[in-house]
Amino acid sequence: MKKNRIFNTITLLSASVIVFIVLAALLFTGIIDEYNGQLLTLAGIYIIVSLSLNLITGFTGQLSLGQAGFMSIGAYSSAIAMMNFHLPLVVSIIIGGLVTAVFGLLIGFPTLRLRGDYLAITTLGFGEIIRVIMVNLETYTGGAAGLKGIPSFSDTGDFLKDSIIKFSWVYVFVIITIVIVNNLINSSPGRAIVSIREDEIAANSMGINVSYYKIFSFTMSAFLAGIGGALYAVYFGYLNPVMFWFLTSVNFVVIVVLGGMGSITGTILAGVGFTYIQEWLRFFKDFRLVIFGLALIIVMLFWPRGLMGTNEFSIVKFVRKYIRKEHEGGSSKPSKIKGVK
Amino acid sequence: MNFMQEFGQQMVNGIALGSVYALIALGYTMVYGIVKLINFAHGDILMVGAFAGFFVLTANGQDPSKISNPLMLVLAFIIAMAVSALFGVIIEKTCYKPLRKAPKINLLITAIGVSIVLENGARVIPWIGPNPKQFPVLKDIPIIDGISQMIKAQTGVFISPVQILSFIIAILLMLMLFYIVNFTKTGKAMRAASYDMGAAQLMGINVDNIISVTFAIGAALAAAAGILFALNYPQVEPYMGIMPGLKAFVAAVLGGIGSIPGAMLGGFIMGIAETLTKGFISSKLADAVAFGILIIILVIKPSGILGKNTREKV
Fold this sequence. Notes:
By secondary structure, chain A is mainly α. Chain A is 74% helix and 1% strand.
């Protein structure tokens, strides 16, 4: 069992490091230019927020239309921590996440009594309230004019260097988010959470504390969305309440549904795909959103389960399969790893 | 002006706005009652109706700045309602019907997709375009002006001609709806389908047709609301349906979604709450207060004010 865990950790760690080195090298040599580097960074932020939404919608089964509201709390609180209190970047980002988690806890309570569409509309209302409050708290948030001059990840003046540093920051947080969500889902609380999605009453009668796990999941989701929002603030260096309105939340719902509700890898793929499709469609100018809307309808009509459904692509399994083949091909001895389960 | 008059004035404004919200909310609540779908495109149907009315009222040979012929206004309402009803039915047949058995969230996202297509489709159509257009002003219609002046002289509260028209149209349409739902065969079928779709089907009701009729009625009500809305803020633009749509949806949930009297009540509450906030607290906070009321009511009574409490069975 222990050996198994070490093997998994090593595989995942090396896989993420390899992906990072490859992408960083491509960026460095200019095969991926700065523009695409920026897009990948943005995609990373989208992935973080979408994963947080997937935790609450895909795994816990509670539809939330207010993820942009959480994101804006994280963004503004970390920006204020940096600008007014001059805290270091990492600390500010984590503060952004923690402040949002408190709000997630608060909004988690009404969800105990509401389900389905009622919950969706409550979270939507919550997101709008946050936006209106951000517009009105002019002394701290800059109001409707926006908040300018948020310190960047790095300001060396060298575009290439800056974009690599930005990318690395976001990449590290993406990996942390994936690890958190994945480990959570595959732990005992995670199974409780998934059982709430499958059938709340059944879960309750099996002795699962539904209220506790719902609030837990909302808080966790808010924390991650807050981290995503904080990164978003630093990425753009500028915040405006309009950036976090209702349709922004919808974008994340779209990513989660396109990737497959309850699939982490699906969300990652859809997050990158969504960012790029949005950029490519700029070519169509005014028709961009018409095409986007039509595409959304068509995908829902003909591909309702999304990219991955609830399936996952597991690197560990992939590597194992490969090693097993090597062993079987190379010698007739039974594989050592095969016995470990 | 003393406080009571000020308060009365705000209440009148609120009820006028509320009657528009109530008309929109009726569409939401009827559709939800039958297909259990939050029709996010409903606000954009309102926009379609407003533009249809706009084109009728500014067609050849008319003064584009004001409406002086009451007959044209009636015609604008009829044509706008017909066009929107057609839109509603087409959208239902092409986008929602194939997904009737799919998970709810897919239907919801399709509705959001439809809404995006309608808004941005309107932006790229050359006759509409992204810029706001001036809507003709309601002016010099003797009967309505007369009523307005009489009320002003009697009570000191000013009710604008548009507000009077909103009351009249809203009450007229609600009475018609009341008649259709309660005293016609179609209405009976609609009630049956919303109660239990499967059983209604077994009793020989063509549920598909009933759903289409529901969408058509809801869209027609939204179109009427759209014209009233456009008359109030005399302009039309492709995104005009989003905020009234959202607020009317909140109104529908507030009153208890699926309940027709609930939608009317919710609409009036939303309208009054909004104008009172604008008048006495802060105009910027109006939206926050509207959604705040929603959250408080849902937390206290999750099924809305007049909604039925459904017990969940295993």
